[in-house]
Amino acid sequence: MTLHRRHFLAGTAAVGGLLAAAPESVAAPAGAEDVDKDFLAVLTKAADGRVAEVLDGRAAAIAELTNQGKARWAARSLRLLVSVYVWADADHHHDAALIAPLTELADALAAAQFDDGLYDQGAVHSPPDTGFSIVDLGLAYGLLDEDDHAATNGVRATLKKILLKAGKGLAEGGVHTPNHRWKICAALARVNSFWPNDSYTRRIDAWLAEGVDQYPAGQYSERSATYAPIVTNPSLLTVARLTGRPKLYACVRRNLEATLHLIEPNGEVETVHSRRQDQKSMKHVSEYWLQYRALALRDKDGRFAAVAETIQRRGKDQIFDETPLGDFLAEVLDHPELAEPLPKATEAPEKFTFHDKECGLVRIGRGAARTSIFGGTDFPDVRAIASGLSTNPTFLKWRKGEAILDSLRLSPQFFSTGHFRAEDLVRTSDGWRLSAEVRAAFHLPLPPQHRRSDGQYPLTDDGRFWSAMDFPHRPKQWRTLRTEVRLRESGGGWDLDFSVGPSEVPLALELCFRPGGTLGGVEPVSGQADTYQLVKGYGTYTVGDDVITFGPGNGSGPRQPATVDAGERYSWMAGSLNVSGIRVLITGRSPFGYRLTLR
């Protein structure tokens, strides 16, 4: 049953009355029994609770807009205030005290907009960054227009000018990253829904004609738990709904299906495989909330309903990465069907194995235990560390209840080439295999035909550093380091068999545990904060009743120093790859054969 937005804004009490009064021959709006009142109550309370914070931060948001050209904070602040102003169930419904702040924010956004309709947001006259704000302002304008309260006539007029002015810049401008395309499409779809224009739809068509950057298993090309829920998924849903492109729902559905296997019991989402900055940070499923809800309702999918119900049940007692809990209200008011009751939830499987071949990621669930095995960095293909590449050297993560091993890495000191990064991830008869080969060269004299009497050779790259040596034309003596890691489930945990050689180099296994637990059986490493070494026997990491046992130790001494070599690509820039947490090193020397047990 379709929920009409104008009727819906009248509040949950009014919705049932409208249904009762509707003639049988007219499609009636949904009744009270067709609205999830608990869901709306959570959002309404959270949105009302955000008003004081938004009003207190208004001056700072406007200052950022005026001084730096950054519109997002001001636009999102306006969106939040609009949501509680138009929503009949909110404490601030038609609150006259909000008109001045709304006017101030709208006027400041209009004044900061360039003649081409764009904002800066850290990049000069940036179409994609403008798109983020226009999506919010378009949503706010639509809610005010449906509400049609005389007190907001001035705010609506200002927003209309901003949106129309931005339309041209968005329809002609470019992007930096894959997700920017879909945000611009969403912004143009918003503006076009009010004032149709062929230039808007032509630009949407042009971007979509490039194809959505999605792998078969469901991840988008950036493989990011930041940009999928914050940009790509909501943008595609908006374009699908406002421009009649139902095929885009399938893209979002596949992404949500893939994400199902990445969600930890505590609501974190795996990020080790990401190509963006979140590959070394934690993200949370709360950002996916309305996407899971939308597809659960559209497809009657109990799996998605279970995720949405869990997020709703946790409410404010969870981490919201980008979107505060109360800010979701505006999206539901804009799309009232999101407030319909969810289908029956389907219990998540206690045991699963999910192999995402495109990302080189395996996720394994065993009750309260979760494992991530990663062998899909971009480093073997491009031999570079750069923004937009997957380079995280963590190849195993394991959590046993509350005891969490956030990272397992291997760092050989081989010509300062840095951490082991697998070139493949292969299923074996009893588990999984990761492997890589790294080579470094000693360069011999140039052949006669490439010698120069003036000694002026081109500046070239030997794979580790640059020098005026004409490296490509030199014969070479190679040194090689081959690494293989075989992983097998055993005894409720894991056995990992390492084989490293033939070159003889020191190496260190680095286990990094989540802060908050207690280590046993290890000794501190001098001069390195929160760093320990397991020299002999087995170590333990304990959080409450959950214990991870690891080992055995592999000795110590000057020929196997307790250090981690991140590689010259980092050290030259005084960079670091240290994982945040409690680190334990197990050292050795290749040729290296060793079994690490995790229980």
Percent of residues in helices:
25-40%
The total of beta strands comes to 21
Pick out the low-confidence regions: 16-31
CATH superfamily of the largest domain: Chondroitin AC/alginate lyase
Separation, N- and C-terminal Cα atoms = 52 Å
At the fold tier of CATH, the topology name of the largest domain is Glycosyltransferase
Number of domains: 2
CATH architecture of the largest domain: Alpha/alpha barrel
Q: Proportion of β residues?
A: 15-25%
How are the strands ordered across the major sheet? 3-4-5-6-7-14-20-17-16
Keywords: Signal
Signal peptide: 1-27
InterPro entries: Chondroitin_lyas (IPR008929), TAT_signal (IPR006311)
Please characterize this protein's 3D structure.
The protein is of the alpha+beta class and 599 residues long. It folds into 2 domains: 36-339, Alpha/alpha barrel (Glycosyltransferase), CATH 1.50.10; 351-439 and 484-598, no CATH class. Helices cover 36% and strands 21% of the residues. It is built from 16 helices and 21 strands. The two termini are 52 Å apart. Residues 16-31 have low confidence and may be disordered.
Write out key terms for the chains shown.
21 strands, 599 residues, single chain, 2 domains, alpha+beta, Glycosyltransferase, 9-stranded mixed β-sheet
What layout of secondary structure does this protein have?
Layout: H1 5-8, H2 12-21, H3 37-68, H4 72-86, H5 99-112, H6 127-147, H7 153-172, H8 178-194, H9 198-209, H10 227-243, H11 248-260, E1 268-269, E2 283-284, H12 289-299, H13 302-314, H14 328-334, E3 351-356, E4 361-366, E5 369-374, H15 379-382, E6 396-400, E7 403-412, E8 424-427, E9 432-443, E10 459-461, E11 466-468, E12 476-490, E13 493-502, E14 506-513, E15 518-520, E16 523-524, E17 531-533, E18 539-543, E19 546-551, H16 568-571, E20 582-589, E21 592-598
Parallel strand pairs: 17-20
Antiparallel strand pairs: 1-2, 3-4, 4-5, 5-6, 6-7, 7-14, 8-9, 9-12, 10-11, 12-13, 13-21, 14-20, 15-18, 16-17, 18-19, 19-21
Helix pairs in contact: 3-4, 3-5, 4-5, 4-6, 5-7, 6-7, 6-8, 6-14, 7-8, 7-9, 8-9, 8-10, 10-11, 12-13
